[in-house]
Design brief:
Strand order of the largest sheet: 2-1-4-3
Helix content: 10-25%
Structural class: alpha+beta
Number of strands: 6
């Protein structure tokens, strides 16, 4: 089976047939860089429809795809853009933001002590009371039971050793991780720009 088929099922792409009845607040534009790759993945680069239309009139972006949904003014009828591309290239950040979601993504959405995907939180490997800092290298994903069990001890003291060493990932590493965990809700016009480089399987 193709990985893209799995992604299609997991992502529940919305059919364009439903577009004319979409609420305007449900019409964000996927923002691509000038090289037609997403401006950012985590969080996914999305602009509200008003921002996208303003950027079009300011000639800062090109329209790549549209919703069927229209907006009207006394002098203009316009389809709402669903995918836009910047005209000027923006150099992407080498490292992703240090957020709870990105920590979970780095750790495969699994507790790094027992592997459970349930009741996830995060744990300081070296407890704060022992000088542990809230950094990529000292925070790991942990389920609530393991977090409680470990308490304020070090992994060695608790005899609980992380499955993976916590590191500061690059944006590229998180993008690779993210291909296994697609967003839950995508518009069909986005798929070619998010998953174009996924390898095919026999």
């Amino acid at each position: 089976m193709l990985k893209s088929e799995l992604i299609d099922r997991a992502s529940r792409f919305r059919s364009a047939e439903e577009d004319p009845t979409r609420k305007l607040e449900n019409c964000p534009a996927l923002v691509l860089n000038a090289d037609y790759t997403p401006l950012s993945y985590y969080p996914l680069s999305l602009w509200p429809w008003q921002t996208a239309i303003k950027a079009i009139f300011l000639e800062r972006v090109d329209v790549v795809a549209t919703y069927e949904r229209m907006v009207h003014s006394p002098s203009l009828d316009m389809q709402i853009p669903s995918v836009i591309a910047l005209r000027q290239y923006v150099k992407p950040s080498e490292f992703p933001a240090f957020t709870r979601f990105n920590v979970f993504l780095r750790d495969h959405f699994a507790c790094q002590y027992c592997g459970s995907p349930q009741h996830l939180t995060f744990d300081h490997v070296v407890p704060r009371r022992l000088g542990g800092k809230t950094t990529w290298e000292n925070i790991i994903t942990a389920c609530a039971p393991c977090n409680m069990k470990k308490g304020g001890r070090t992994p060695r003291q608790a005899h609980m050793h992380p499955l993976l060493e916590p590191i500061r990932p690059t944006s590229w590493q998180l993008i690779q991780q993210g291909k296994s965990f697609p967003p839950n809700y995508l518009h069909e016009t986005w798929r070619d720009w998010l998953y174009w480089d996924i390898e095919l399987e026999e």
